[in-house]
Design goal:
The complex is a heterotrimer of chains A (245), B (186) and C (221). Chain A is 78% helix and 0% strand. Chain A is mainly α and 245 residues long. The two termini of chain A are 21 Å apart. Classes of the chains: A mainly alpha (245), B alpha/beta (186), C mainly alpha (221). At the A-C interface, helix 4 and helix 5 of A face helix 8 and helix 9 of C. Chain C: Required for the export of heme to the periplasm for the biogenesis of c-type cytochromes.
Amino acid sequence: MGMLSAFANPHRFLALSKWLAPVFYLLGAGLIAWGLWQGLYVVPKDEVQGGDIMRVMFVHVPAAWLAMASYTAMASASFVWFIWRHELADIAAKAIAPLGAVWTALCLATGSIWGKPTWGTWWQWDDARMMSVLFLFFLFLGYMALRAAMDSRQKAARAGAILAMVGAINVPLIKFSVDLFTSLHQDSSVLTAEGPKMAAVYLWPLLMSGLGHSLLFGAMVMTLMRAEIWTRRAARQRARLLAGA
Amino acid sequence: MLSAENLGILRGERVLFEGVSLEVRRGDAVLLRGANGAGKTTLLRILAGLTRTDSGHVTRGAAHHWIGHREGLKPHETPRAHLALWAKAWGAEADTNTILGDMGLSRPADVAARYLSAGQRRRTALARLMLDIRPVWLLDEPFTALDAEGRERVLAMVHKHRQNGGAVVAAVHGDSGFVASQEMVL
Amino acid sequence: MSPAPILSAFRQALGEAWAGGAGALLPLGFFAGAAVLVPLGIGTEPGMLRAVGPGILWVALALSSLVTLERIFQADVEDGALDLWLQAGAPVSAIAAAKTFAHWLTAGLPLALMSPVLALMFQADADVNLLSGALAYGLGGLAFFFWGGVGAALSATVRRGGLLIALIALPLYVPTAIFGSMAVSGAAGTTAAPLLLAASTLFALAVAPFAMAAALRLAAD
């Protein structure tokens, strides 16, 4: 029964994530809450960065970090699946995509909210980071749309992996071209979002928020992966029952 | 010439078939049987290397011809242009005029495929078998849309091919007069 | 390995492109139509048209590449030609590249050749820049066709795949659109842009065929 290997059940992942996901949820929520409390009530505001609005940084910077990290993770999982065909890697890539898109959208939204008072515009075309994150968002959308259009999970996995890898090798080029594009328009007196140097008083709340968002992200990925594993098991059971009937 | 061991395939979570093994030798005519959706086409596509098998493996000891249920004809191509194109692609030197005549395609030889009948398109696809001598023929529903005379012609081609030491694997629906040396039910 | 199957794939794609509706006239009409709509929408002030002209042409070029590409592999899946090409004994990446190149020849190159006329309509000066611009549109179009080809191959089995191709290809078009606009605008600080455009097109030519090959094998599966 060589076919059994294709059915290999990720037992260890289920056992591990069963207790790890709740731990991540609790730790993540705690850290995010602490970071927000620090950011909103404790740290002083920075007038150069727009006054109180700069406090959105404690959501914006973690979201920006996760936007990049999640695409990297999705592309890595796709690569692992493409080379070794380990089903769990595909399940991970599939789970990361919608969450990555959400955090990327969060990054864009908070960046825009921050940009209005500081730059005087909701959307700053000359900001290389905003533009790069926007294209990352499109990469996520394309990935999800392509997977959804395929008629079996095996084909969705293959198509998704090809696209994620093509996207990943293009990201540096996209980043470079966008940087070059925006560097030509520097005369429009753009304020840099982080300022010349991060004040030490912001560092810890920011780091803890970043860690909290990452843990929450990880926990949600695990939840989606567990749901996907059980969905596939149920579909398998159903197929077996139908075949037996 | 062609052997397959322990093939199995999943469609979604459904096992289409598994544990399928097949050995094709010189002069063989293997007939694949099974209800609609049993996986005849999929098995042929695995043998041709078009579809990936989820288990087992295929060993190909000889070149093959592929006639799928979609002809591979472009709407703007005429039967003559189609054969000329593939003769060139394969480096075959057969005389396309003779083949067109043999297949009963002399009259519509210069008509674009979009104006041909289903049977004429089928004959054009089958004519590719004559372009190039290849030991293994993989045929998916070769008789579809053919009239009685066309069927006879294809049966004669298969007969001659086997006499010359070739082998055929075909998925055939219903009674067609196809004489098999080996039947495989999926 | 003989190059014969690759040449045959190229010839068949050329024939298909010419037969598939008025040859190069259709994409040309689309290109011109999309570009000509813009002044109607934003006004006819010459200074503004001169400023936006190159960008409009890049957008129109990207759009017409997407429209052309929708069918190139989908048709092969539907009529069974893909099965034959996958078994033709040549690397699938080379077949895919030959087909994509053929479609660029019939739909991309004519657009580049017509770009000086449209540039003049957008108030560009009649000088040698029109020719270097045409070269840039040609090179950039080639990159558009190859990245778009990846999207087309990935969505070859998808009904209404055109929308999907656009979504997939859009982020991949970004470097070409940026380098290309810079190369054509000739503004200060853009002297390297033509080289960057050429380099990113070479990158597309080197990478996209392998992605197309993997996607086409999937489409046939």
